[in-house]
Amino acid sequence: MTSLGRASAILGAGTLISRITGLVRTIVLVAAIGTIGQAGDAFGVANQLPNNVFTIIQTGILTAVIIPQIVKSASHADGGEGYISKLFTLGTVVFLGATAAAMLAAPWLVGLYASNGFSPDQLALGTAFAYWCLPQIFFYGLYALIGETLNAKRVFGPYTWTPVANNIISIAGFLVFIALFGGNQSRVDVWDPTMIAVLGGTATLGITVQALLLLFAWRRTGLRLRPDFRWKGVGLGQVGTLAGWTFLMVIAGQIAGLIQTRVVTDSSGDHPSVFMMQAAWLVFMLPYSIFAISIGTPYFTQIAEHAHANRRDEVRSDVARCIRVVSLFIIGSGIALAVAAVPATRIFTESPADAVAAAPVLVCYLIGLLPLSVLFIVQRAFYAFGDTRTPFVFTLVQVSLIIGFSYLAAAVAPLSQLAAAVALGQSIAGLVQTVIAVLILRHRLGGLELPQTLLSLGRFAIAAVPAGLAGWGTYLLLGADAGWTAGQTGSTFVDKLLGAVGTGVIGLVAVIVYALVLLVLRAPEMSAARGLIRRILPGR
C-alpha cells in the first residue's frame, strides 16, 4: 500500500512537471494566436466547452461518488471487478452520448457563452473551433473514469503524469502551426479551415493520447474489465441518487461560469478577456494543483476508507491534518506568486503592457487560493460519507454570490479591469462558501481541531507578511514594471524567459523568508514539509 507521504510526493512531482509543461504549452499557444484579440477569445470559448463538461464528469460524479463506491466494492467477492466493469460500460455510453449531443449543439453553445461581446465573424470562428475541440469530451471522460479508479485503488502516479504527454503533443502541434502560418494570428479574418484544423486538432489529439496512456497502468489495479450492460442490482441506483446532487451542484457552478464568460466578453478585443483569464487561471492553478490536489487526493482515499468504517475520530484527524499541511504550502506559494504577478503574467503575454494589464487578474484569483484549497478537502469529507446534498447547498451560496458580483463588476468596473473584478468576485464568493462548509463539517463530525488549525493558519499568516515584503522589495529592486523581469528586450523568447526567471527569483526570496520565519516560530508542520520535499528530490 502506497503511504500518504509517498503518494503525495509522486503526485506533487508529476503535477509540477505537468504544470510547467502546461505553462510552456500556453506560451506557445499565445505566440500562435495572441492573448488580447478576437481569435484568442474565440478559441478560448470553444476549448472551454469540453473542459466544462469534464468538470461536470469529474467533480460532479466521479470524485464525489465513484471513489467511495469503488472503495466499498473492494469488499465484494471479486474485489469489485464486476461492479467496476458495469461502471465503465455505463460511463462509456454516457460519454459518447454527451459528445454527440454537444457536437450537435455547438453553434448554440458558443453563442450562449459569447453573449453580445463577439462579432458574427468571431462567433463563426469559435463555432469552427468547437467542432474540433468538443470530441475531447469523450476522452476527458475516459481519462477521469480510469484515473479516479486508479486513485481509488491507490495507484496515484499515472493520473498526474499523463497530462505531460498532452502538453508535449500540444507544444509540438502549436509550433507546427507557427511554422506553417506564422505567429500572433489574433485577427479573425485571416483564419481558414486548414489553420483551424491544425490548432483545434492539436488540442484534441493531446487529450486523446492523455486518456489512452492511462490504459497502460490499468494492470496495476489487478482488475479485468469487460463490457457489461447489466446495470441493475449492483447499487447503481444509489450512485444515481448521490450523483444527482453533485450533478446539480456542478451545473450550478457552470451557470456561474457562463455568466462570468458572458460578462467578460464585453472587453474582448482590446482588454483582458476570456483567453487572458484562462491563462491567469492556469498560473493560479499551479500551486493549487501541486499542493492541494497532490496532498489532498491520497488523503481523500484514506478518508473514504475511514468513513466507510465509521471511524469519525480518524476522519476528523485526517481532515484537520490535511488542511494544515496544505495551507502551509498554499499560503507560502500564493504570496510568492502574488508579489511576482507581473513577471509571472509576462510568461504568457505579448508585451510588458499586457503583463501589467493581466497581473491584477492573477492577484484577484490568488485571493481565493487558500479558501479553494481548504474547500477541496472539506468537500471531499462530505463525499466520503456519501453526503452530496450538503455540498450542493453551500455551493448555491457561492454561485449566487458569483453571479451577483459578476453583474456588479459589469455595472461599475471599467472594461480594462472587468476581468480582474470578475475574478475578485469569484474569490470573495469562494471564501464565504468555505467558511460555511467548514462550520457545517465541524458540526457534523463533532469537532474539527479548529483551535489548533487556526493557530497554524495564524503562524502562516504572520510568516507571509515579511515574506511578501521581501518579495515585493526584490521586485522593486529589479526595476518593477520597467525592469528586466517584465521582459523589455523585444525578443518574444527572451522576454518570456526573463519573466520566468524573474518570477523564480522573486518567488524564491519570498519562500525563503517565509520558511525562515516559520522555523523561528517552530511551526510543527515544517517537519511534514521537509518529508514531502525529500520524497520529491531525485533518488527518493
Description:
By secondary structure, the chain is mainly alpha-helical. The protein has one domain. The protein is built from 19 helices and no strands. It has helices at 4-33, 38-73, 81-104, 106-114, 120-133, 136-152, 157-181, 193-213, 236-264, 274-308, 312-339, 341-346, 352-366, 369-384, 389-412, 418-445, 450-477, 492-520, 525-536. It is globular, with a radius of gyration of 23 Å. It starts with a helix and ends with a helix. The model has no long low-confidence stretch (mean pLDDT 83).
List the keywords.
19 helices, 540 residues, globular
Helical residue percent band: over 70%
Let me know the number of strands.
Answer: 0
Output the structural class. mainly alpha
How many separate domains make up the residues?
1
Distance between the termini: 17 Å
Number of helices: 19
Low-pLDDT stretches: none
Major beta sheet summary = none
Write down the Rg: 23 Å
What would the average pLDDT be, to the nearest integer? 83
Strand content: under 5%
* H-E order: HHHHHHHHHHHHHHHHHHH
Shape: globular
Subcellular location: Cell membrane
Keywords: Cell membrane, Cell shape, Membrane, Peptidoglycan synthesis, Transmembrane, Transmembrane helix
Membrane topology: Multi-pass membrane protein
InterPro entries: Lipid_II_flippase_MurJ/MviN, MurJ
